[in-house]
UniProtKB/TrEMBL annotation:
<keyword id="KW-0812">Transmembrane</keyword>
<feature type="transmembrane region" description="Helical">
    <location>
        <begin position="269"/>
        <end position="289"/>
    </location>
</feature>
<keyword id="KW-0472">Membrane</keyword>
<feature type="transmembrane region" description="Helical">
    <location>
        <begin position="161"/>
        <end position="184"/>
    </location>
</feature>
<feature type="transmembrane region" description="Helical">
    <location>
        <begin position="86"/>
        <end position="108"/>
    </location>
</feature>
<keyword id="KW-0813">Transport</keyword>
<dbReference type="Pfam" id="PF00528">
    <property type="entry name" value="BPD_transp_1"/>
</dbReference>
<dbReference type="InterPro" id="IPR035906">
    <property type="entry name" value="MetI-like_sf"/>
</dbReference>
<feature type="transmembrane region" description="Helical">
    <location>
        <begin position="117"/>
        <end position="141"/>
    </location>
</feature>
<dbReference type="InterPro" id="IPR000515">
    <property type="entry name" value="MetI-like"/>
</dbReference>
<feature type="domain" description="ABC transmembrane type-1">
    <location>
        <begin position="82"/>
        <end position="288"/>
    </location>
</feature>
<dbReference type="GO" id="GO:0055085">
    <property type="term" value="P:transmembrane transport"/>
</dbReference>
<keyword id="KW-1133">Transmembrane helix</keyword>
<feature type="transmembrane region" description="Helical">
    <location>
        <begin position="215"/>
        <end position="240"/>
    </location>
</feature>
<keyword id="KW-1003">Cell membrane</keyword>
<comment type="similarity">
    <text>Belongs to the binding-protein-dependent transport system permease family. CysTW subfamily.</text>
</comment>
<protein>
    <submittedName>
        <fullName>ABC transporter permease</fullName>
    </submittedName>
</protein>
């Protein structure tokens, strides 16, 4: 068998092996995304849905709204929802990182048996439904929930304070839901750390902070960036947690998209919001990927 024939057979087998995966991605990812983009440039039907007539009204509505007299005004409500989504997603990522980094470092330094138990506990929330886990926070944060009862019992407050249906409640819920996605990638990076490098750092009289900044941080940066992507992206498009813990008063992008496709039945506007969300996610992933490449270099 000649080298050319062998190479052709390998290429043919590779193509055949990739065909199912490519077909699945095309059918369930690429084609729906194309349909969403096309739908965003269509016209809303009189009773909802879409009319297949080209229009940019959906994208115009991202910036402007039409007043009763026909004049245009800035869509301040959408800007508030967009800023709330970005801020909450960013804070969720930051808080998860601050909690996950020392947690992952501690787990990675335990014995194999203890490590297995701790990893099992970290993954334990995945065994229950997201809706159930999020609903449990309503019981904890409501006016006469566990948190308020504890605060009144210790004398910090004399009456219940509003914790539920606030941005803080949404933030707590997002951190609770997505923190395992930050711990596991960082744990993988920390576990591969060479202890000799840490010992060398201390031998050179580096402080713990300097060791974390100049040795541990750069070496675990791929895990940090991977965890940040896994937390920021779903947090930005979350709608179950904001709906339940925000009470429908503190909308995020995911909640607004859900409302447009269901209650409002404004599919072109919902599709334009989806395209905007996708663009924001791609930009965030591009920035984080560039930082990962620089960290490796």
């Amino acid at each position: 068998m000649t080298t050319t024939t062998r190479a052709q057979r390998i290429r043919r087998r590779t193509i055949l092996g990739l065909t199912p995966a490519v077909t699945m991605m095309g059918a369930f990812m690429v084609i729906p995304l194309i349909l969403v983009v096309v739908m965003s440039f269509m016209t809303r039907g009189q009773y909802g849905g879409i009319v297949w007539e080209f229009s940019t009204d959906a994208y115009q509505r991202l910036i402007y709204v039409t007043r009763l007299d026909g004049s245009l005004a800035y869509n301040l409500s959408f800007l508030a929802i967009l800023s709330r989504s970005l801020v909450l997603a960013g804070l969720t990522t930051l808080i998860c990182l601050l909690i996950a980094f020392p947690t992952a470092f501690y787990v990675a330094r335990q014995s194999q048996r203890t490590k297995s138990i701790l990893l099992l506990l970290i993954m334990f929330p995945f065994w229950s439904n997201l809706l159930v886990r999020t609903t449990s926070w309503i019981i904890i944060l409501r006016d006469f929930g566990f948190v308020n009862q504890f605060l009144m019992w210790v004398g910090i407050t004399s009456e219940p304070i509003t914790l539920l249906f606030t941005n803080g409640a949404i933030l707590v819920g997002l951190v609770y839901v997505y923190i395992p996605f930050m711990i596991l990638p960082i744990y993988t990076s920390v576990e591969r750390l060479d202890n000799g490098l840490l010992e060398a750092s201390f031998d050179l009289f580096a402080t713990r902070f300097q060791t974390v900044r100049h040795v541990i941080g750069p070496l675990t940066m791929p895990g940090i960036i991977a965890g940040s992507i896994l937390v920021f992206v779903p947090s930005l498009g979350a709608f179950i947690t904001p709906d339940l813990l925000g009470g429908g008063k503190k909308l995020m992008l995911g909640s607004l998209i859900h409302l447009q496709f269901t209650t409002a039945r404004n599919w072109p506007y919902g599709a334009s919001l989806s395209v905007l969300l996708l663009a924001a996610v791609l930009i965030a992933m591009f920035i984080l990927a560039r930082r990962a490449i620089r960290a490796r270099g």
